[in-house]
Structure formats: structure tokens, C-alpha cells
Design goal:
This protein has 382 residues and is of the alpha/beta class. The protein has 10 helices and 18 strands. Strands 1, 11, 12, 13, 14, 15, 16, 17 and 18 form a 9-stranded mixed sheet that branches. The chain has a 7-stranded mixed sheet with strand order 4-3-2-5-6-7-8. The longest helix is centred in the first third of the chain and has 18 residues. The radius of gyration is 22 Å and the shape is globular. The protein starts with 5 loop residues before the first helix and ends with a strand.
Length: 382
């Protein structure tokens, strides 16, 4: 596969490798991590994606100028330099068309681009989210201030040309930071959410809620997780780092009750909405840091038959692991987007008596070095 900017973009580091070669590399990389950590765990073959292009349901682009003309694209690795990635093959065609139109409008409306060095200018980024099954689109303009000249015209043109756009949001980020989104947001069009279908459920999410980047492979991952947990009708499940509730919601038809925990209050509101619109009553959600929730659960001797964790790239905490294992659940399912931190955490779980014999791999990021990992932990028997 060819790309004109692959060497300077760095987004698809495995672009020259066939899927079978990517699978071999990803498996070998994880095997080396496991061996280095002295874990006696078998690494399974990678569940590769059937659709490995035009899959990204979330895209963030920056803007720059070349000879006075505005262009957009992804950032070069370890830099703030915008690479012109027009019509990227990893992004849905509709998303590319919308990005191209926005880029054109930014130039014609003479919107001032944000300058990270001086801290001046208005437009910092545009984030686009897309529903794979629904074709619904969310557009998020990240600006350095509330005042957004021509925003009414921007909204009018985009929504008239692309009926798939169901909501447009302005996120205000005045800070000198590489973090894209901040807390303050204004809904310019729609209700601030879009819908997608995942594992047969109607899932809604907002601009700052976590949602897996490859929807089809997410269904593969959650199906695998459900099979590995093999829940009973009498089981109670704790779903930590739950985001908009997707994992827990897919488990509700196989157990007695699910409790979802997530630090992001907006995501929790999404999760409650998702439960309601899918008429799922045996699940509840709480907005709380997952480690703090686990400390409280240990203090009050709460019981869960199964605990699920899908933490950020940094992995979970030592306190979380000690408290989770002290609750003596029958099973712990750990999903990770970074095998390095998961392997580190698996050693901590092992010290607390919880072990696994196999690490499953799911490719949610075709043509990149990333791979999603999933393990089932159970208390070690003597």
C-alpha cells in the first residue's frame, strides 16, 4: 500500500507489511514483553481486522499555511508540525470529504489559525467522530476562545452540504498545552451526541467520551471478552473505567447485575442514557475514580463475581489491584491498549494471587504498531 506522506506522517508505521506480516510482528512484540517480564503466559494469534482501511471513527486534524493557503492534516510524530494528509486511506471517505470542506471554509472565511509559539489565533483543531453503522457525524471545533467569527455560516454550510452531520460542538481550549480538549464546550448544532450501533445496541456518545477507534474490531473484542468471562445468570459484575458503558451493557443479558464506574461525569451521563434507550434495567453507573471506588468497595466488603477493567494507556494502579483482588472475585477481565503497562500490571496481579495462562490479541489499529490485549485472571490454585 502506498501513501505520499507515510515517511513524514508516521501514522501508519506498518504500511508496507501485509496483514499476515503485521500479525506476526504484533504477536512477536507482545511475546517479547511477556518473556522479559518472566510471565508464564501463552500469547494467542492476533484477531485481525477484515476491514483495515477507512476504519477510524475518530480523527483530529490541525491546520497550517503553505504560501498563504490553509491546509489540514495529522501531526508528524513527536512534533506539532502539521503534515498535509489529504484523503487519508485510514479515515472514512465521508470524514475526508468533511475535512476537505472545513479546510476550504477556514481559508475562505479567513479564520485565524492558532499559533502555539505565541499563543495567538483562534482555530486549534477539528475533531470528527463518525458512527460506523449509522453514518452519523459529529464535528468539534477546538478554539482558543469563545468568540468564533462566522460560526453560524460554518454551521449552515456544513449541515446543508452534509446531512450526516447531526451535531456540531465548539470546545474552548485557552491553555498552552498539547491536550486537545478542555472542559468548556458549547453545542452549536444538534444535541451534542451522535449514535452508533455496537453489538446490537444503540450507543450514544459525546465529543469527549471514550469510544473504540475501530467499531467492527471493537465488536470482535467485546465478543471475545464475553466468551472468556462466561458469566452466570446469578453473577454480579463490576465494570471499571467504563466510559459510555459499552462493555458492561453488552454483558447485561448474561448476568444478574452490572455496576459501571467512570471518572468522566459526561461519559456517565452518556452511559445512563445508553442504558435507558436500550431498555436495560440491570445496570447502574457512578461517576468516580476507579481506584477510589475500589478502595471504598474493599472498605465496605462489597462482593462482585467478576471485575472488568479497561484502563487508559497508563494502565491501572497498585492500589486498584490490591483492592480488587482483596474482594476475591471469581474472575477479573483486563483489556488494555498498551501491552507494556498490562504486562507490568499482570505481575502485580500475580503477587496478589491472580494469574492467567493466555493473552489474547485483537487488532484495532491496522497498519500501526498498536494492538489491543485481553486476559482473564483467576485466583491461583495450589
Amino acid at each position: 500500500m502506498k501513501c505520499k506522506v507515510e515517511k513524514i506522517c508516521g501514522g501508519c508505521s506498518l504500511l508496507k507489511l501485509k496483514p499476515s506480516m503485521q500479525a506476526d510482528k504484533k504477536k512477536k512484540d507482545v511475546e517479547e514483553l511477556v518473556e522479559k517480564a518472566h510471565l508464564k503466559v501463552r500469547v494467542g494469534d492476533v484477531h485481525m481486522a477484515k476491514n483495515d482501511t477507512h476504519y477510524r471513527n475518530k480523527v483530529i486534524v490541525g491546520f497550517a499555511k503553505d504560501k498563504g493557503k490553509v491546509y489540514s492534516g495529522l501531526y508528524a510524530p513527536h512534533s506539532h508540525r502539521v503534515v498535509k494528509t489529504e484523503n487519508c486511506i485510514m479515515q472514512p471517505k465521508l470524514v475526508n470529504e468533511i475535512i476537505n470542506k472545513i479546510t476550504e471554509l477556514v481559508g475562505s472565511m479567513k479564520l485565524e489559525l492558532y499559533n502555539e509559539r505565541t499563543g495567538t489565533g483562534l482555530l486549534r483543531h477539528v475533531l470528527i467522530r463518525w458512527g460506523h453503522k449509522t453514518d452519523e457525524v459529529m464535528v468539534v471545533f477546538v478554539t482558543s476562545q469563545k468568540i468564533f467569527p462566522s460560526r453560524k455560516n460554518m454551521v449552515r454550510v456544513l449541515t446543508s452540504e452534509f446531512p450526516q452531520i447531526k451535531t456540531i460542538v465548539q470546545n474552548i481550549n485557552p491553555r498552552k498545552t498539547s491536550i486537545v480538549l478542555q472542559d468548556e464546550a458549547i453545542v452549536l448544532y444538534g444535541n451534542g451526541m451522535i449514535h452508533d450501533e455496537l453489538c446490537g445496541l444503540d450507543i450514544a456518545f459525546s465529543h469527549n467520551s471514550f469510544y473504540q477507534i475501530h467499531s467492527e474490531q471493537c465488536e470482535v473484542l467485546y465478543g471475545l471478552a464475553k466468551k472468556m468471562l462466561d458469566l452466570k445468570e446469578t453473577d454480579t459484575v463490576l465494570d471499571t473505567y467504563c466510559g459510555v458503558g459499552t462493555i458492561g451493557l453488552t454483558m447485561t443479558d448474561s448476568c444478574k447485575k452490572v455496576m459501571g464506574v467512570e471518572v468522566n461525569p459526561d461519559a456517565i451521563e452518556n452511559a445512563k442514557y445508553n442504558a435507558k434507550q436500550n431498555k436495560i434495567k440491570n445496570i447502574e453507573f457512578v461517576a468516580m475514580d476507579s481506584t477510589e471506588f475500589m478502595r471504598q468497595a474493599r472498605k465496605y466488603h462489597n462482593h462482585y463475581d467478576a471485575i472488568i477493567l479497561d484502563p487508559p494507556r497508563a494502565g491501572t494502579t497498585k492500589d486498584f489491584i490490591e483492592c480488587a483482588t482483596a474482594l476475591n472475585p471469581r474472575k477479573i477481565l483486563y483489556i488494555s491498549c498498551d501491552p507494556r503497562t498490562q504486562v507490568r500490571d499482570l505481575n502485580q496481579f500475580r503477587k496478589q494471587g491472580y494469574v492467567t495462562n493466555k493473552l489474547e490479541l485483537v487488532d484495532l489499529f491496522p497498519y500501526t504498531d498498536h494492538v489491543e490485549t485481553c486476559v482473564l485472571l483467576q485466583r491461583r490454585t495450589m
